[in-house]
Amino acid sequence: MYAWGVPAGGAEGPPPPLRPPPPPLLSLEGGRMYGAAGPPARSASAPLVRSLRRPPPPTTGVSFMNNQKQQKPTLSGQRFKTRKRDEKERFDPTQFQDCIIQGLTETGTDLEAVAKFLDASGAKLDYRRYAETLFDILVAGGMLAPGGTLADDMMRTDVCVFAAQEDLETMQAFAQVFNKLIRRYKYLEKGFEDEVKKLLLFLKGFSESERNKLAMLTGVLLANGTLNASILNSLYNENLVKEGVSAAFAVKLFKSWINEKDINAVAASLRKVSMDNRLMELFPANKQSVEHFTKYFTEAGLKELSEYVRNQQTIGARKELQKELQEQMSRGDPFKDIILYVKEEMKKNNIPEPVVIGIVWSSVMSTVEWNKKEELVAEQAIKHLKQYSPLLAAFTTQGQSELTLLLKIQEYCYDNIHFMKAFQKIVVLFYKAEVLSEEPILKWYKDAHVAKGKSVFLEQMKKFVEWLKNAEEESESEAEEGD
To answer: Quick one: pLDDT at residue 21?
Structure first.
């Protein structure tokens, strides 16, 4: 203990540090702060300092700052610990393949057991990540290298499509395995479509037997809706088409597809993906004709597919004909040139005259904007159709063509209500212009008409038909008298 200024032992020691005097009082004058003595005297030459300076803080006799270590700057932020489930696993399809092949080996060729194994394994194995590997194994027995070959150093299994028997019944059973798997794990649907597209591109790398099995399986899967018809785009690969692989594969595929459904269902599926008019592209450009397609697939036992393609080609040609016909009419081309063009298209695409007269009638009626007033539209129609009578007459050289035209007129007048009263006038005009003759008109009146507006149109035609009958009887009597 120290006494005041003297150590406890009596020896003199250094005096304790004295407390510093208090700071001088501050005063505020004219917006400035001064000490107790007031503002200092300022010489004339001394500059006026406008800054406000605060006095330094009071200091103690002992400073503790020197005893503390100077802290080094540190990086700010928060460090998160990665969860185990978020850590990305290494992509290892080989290990996945080994697990699947081992399981398939244990199940054997019992496809029911195979389906159950695949169903249960989806909870333990990452099907989403290894979908391509999974489908490679189920189809080819192992992982496929580019081109469609199996690597020699990889494990293989015989429980696959390519090692199965080459018959439709077996492929139907395998289709059920794929169907159950994809229904159970819906996310595999896209991966399976991509797999089939890839397999179709690899067709040259497979044997003929393997291609046949894949074709039958694909046809069944298309029929039951597991696959979309858009996968057939892969068959239009230039190399596959050039070597005839695409056409041969399509024969087996369509046979199994039509066997499961019918040609109408197949046509509807093709139409949905805009492939109903592309089937001839299965052949090289120099063989893309209806005749070659029909001959090839008819000889292969697919007559219904041949007829479907022929009809589709005719429909396409009809649409093109109508489009060109309307353009020629809008340009005001001479009827002679139009008639020549239409007859060439008829011969080229095998379009019968009764079909052509329907196209010509539709084209003629679409070239004008009709009046909305019923009392005026009849006069407008007569004037317009009188102008086009020579064109229509060129394609009514058969009785069936005349009857077809009558039915087209009836349907048009019924569908366009402003023409309801114009039907009889149009028929009489065409009779006078020799577009229509007596026999087809009488046949139409008797039993060849359709239900649309039947009572109205028959009533309109009653007097004219009676006149035709009388004229016909007079002609017959005159002929008898002449004899």
So the answer is: 60
